[in-house]
Specification:
425 residues; alpha/beta; Alpha-Beta Plaits; Rossmann fold; Elongation Factor Tu (Ef-tu), domain 3; 3 domains; 21% helix; globular; binds flavin-adenine dinucleotide; binds iron/sulfur cluster
Length: 425
């Protein structure tokens, strides 16, 4: 960032809505809460962003790296940015000069930090789980290719499989979809995601933006040796408030037939990656379709074990759903050997049984989790709906505190060493 010489001009930080894939990485990364979003756009608060650049390299598309010199009093508001379908053009230098009476080329400043510290009603700082999420991968992760097929030039995949992978009824269906890329290179790693571009246009007549789906298959394909990936997609038939809605992309994907062609962008994600070194441990905590990356990692470790050429560490899985019938892959999970993976289920709506959430089961397994927290070879992965994230990280904090450990230093180490990965949506 250049020196501040003109307090009336800001270098306003903006996100390009045409190529942003709404992956939430920037919002999770920004240390001071300058980024927010609605169903349509991700946007930056001009009065909060201090230009620290922490969000720039984690963004998988580069859409975050946009800056406009603006008179401070005319900075684009959040409300304006949320309506955009494309970025506004730069103000011509002479117009800026005329508005401000400054010489073109003057250095400009990002908005000054004006950081509202979130506080609870009691005045206590609010626990911010996102601050512990790593933005770098484990040191031994394989190299991830990203954005090979960017939002403006999707590639085409063919559906080669689509079936319901829950025992639940239509309302709670989750589908296992297999996409084949034919001869088009599409290298992926467990933990990455792809974007599916639904056909047609939105209510404003604009092409739909791509929705992200985590890859559920290991790096060598759902079917080893084939150029294919699998996804775990839940039909969205009600919004987060429980109101009826028909999710555009999820219903499109769940209704696909074998042989259909699909527009795909990606792959995306360069930090939610599994460790590759022998004896490394993996702790997986997920709900619902958050199981997709966990399935990919588990299956890769299962294939390595079968090869007899790799000595894996411990695998622990904490898996939550409302009922057993809604839990994707419940059947196949039961067949995995107990000495391969330590599986812990939590069901919150089983009739006649008390509600249990993943964080409850994590607390029950505190003695094992504390060993994992202390071990630099153990990596933690959290994936599922946004609402689970805080409870899970709080459970980790409590497990550490109850064992007399200092969470602040453990939490900081988990982030620094790429050992705690959060992907919630
Ligand atoms: C990195 C990343 C990975 C993801 N991985 C997966 C995955 O593996 N499997 C998967 O099924 N989804 C995954 N998602 C969510 C997915 O991208 C879509 O947001 C979801 O499928 C809804 O899209 P839609 O077009 O059907 O709904 P939209 O038409 O976009 O939304 C319709 C309404 O439903 C609400 N809504 C959106 N998502 C949900 C939801 N999940 N539950 C309840 N209400 C919702 C919206 O707020 C909106 O009001 C992931 C998201 C991200 C950011
Ligand atoms: S530049 Fe820094 S303050 Fe601004 S949005 Fe990015 S991470 Fe947040
Ligand atoms: S694509 Fe970049 S700008 Fe868009 S939500 Fe993801 S990180 Fe943020």
């Amino acid at each position: 960032m250049e020196m501040v010489v003109e307090a009336n001009v800001i270098n306003q930080h903006l996100i390009d809505p045409e190529i942003c894939i709404r992956c939430n990485t920037c919002e999770a990364t920004c240390p001071i809460g300058a980024i927010t979003h609605d169903d349509r756009n991700y946007v930056v608060r001009a009065d909060v962003c201090n230009g620290c650049m922490a969000c720039i390299s984690p963004c998988p598309t580069g859409s975050i790296d946009n800056w406009r010199k603006m008179p401070r009093v005319r900075a684009y508001s959040i409300e304006e940015q949320l309506t955009w379908d494309e970025l506004p053009a730069e103000l011509p230098a002479d117009q800026l000069e005329a508005e401000l009476g400054t010489a073109p080329g003057d250095a400009v400043a990002p908005a000054p930090p004006n950081v509202p510290q979130p506080a609870s009603e009691a005045g206590e700082p609010v626990f911010n789980s996102a601050q512990y999420g790593a933005t770098t991968p484990p040191w031994s992760a394989a190299h991830a290719y990203t954005n090979l097929h960017p939002p403006k030039s999707p590639t085409t995949a063919t559906v080669v499989g689509n079936f319901n992978c829950t025992e639940a009824g239509y309302e709670n269906q989750t589908h296992h979809i297999v996409l084949d890329f034919g001869t088009m290179p599409f290298p992926v790693l467990e933990g990455q995601s792809i974007g599916i571009v639904p056909p047609g246009v939105d209510a404003n007549g604009k092409p739909h933006f791509a929705r992200q789906y985590s890859i559920a298959s290991p790096r060598n394909g759902e079917r080893p040796g084939y150029n294919n990936v699998s996804l775990t997609v839940k039909r969205v038939l009600e919004d987060h408030q429980g109101r009826p809605v028909r999710g555009v992309a999820s219903n499109y994907v769940c209704d696909l037939k074998v042989g259909d062609k699909v527009q795909v962008v990606g792959p995306f994600g360069a930090s939610f990656l599994m460790p590759n070194h022998p004896k490394s441990h993996i702790v997986m905590i997920c709900t619902g379709t958050g199981s997709a990356p966990m399935r990919a990692m588990t299956e890769w470790r299962r294939r390595l074990r079968k090869s007899g050429k790799f000595e894996g560490g411990k695998l622990m899985l904490f898996f939550g759903a409302r009922t057993q019938q809604e839990l994707p892959y419940f059947g196949p999970l039961q067949t995995l050997p107990k000495d391969f993976i330590d599986i812990n289920f939590a069901f919150s709506r089983t009739p006649g049984a008390p509600k249990r959430y993943v964080q409850d089961v994590m607390r029950e397994r505190a003695a094992d989790l504390i060993e994992m927290l202390k071990d630099s070879h153990a990596h933690f992965y959290v994936c599922g709906l946004k609402s689970m994230e805080e409870g899970v990280v709080l459970a980790l904090r409590d497990v550490a505190a109850d064992a007399g450990l200092d969470w602040d230093s453990i939490g900081a180490a988990l982030k620094r060493e790429g050992r705690l990965h959060l992907e919630t949506y």
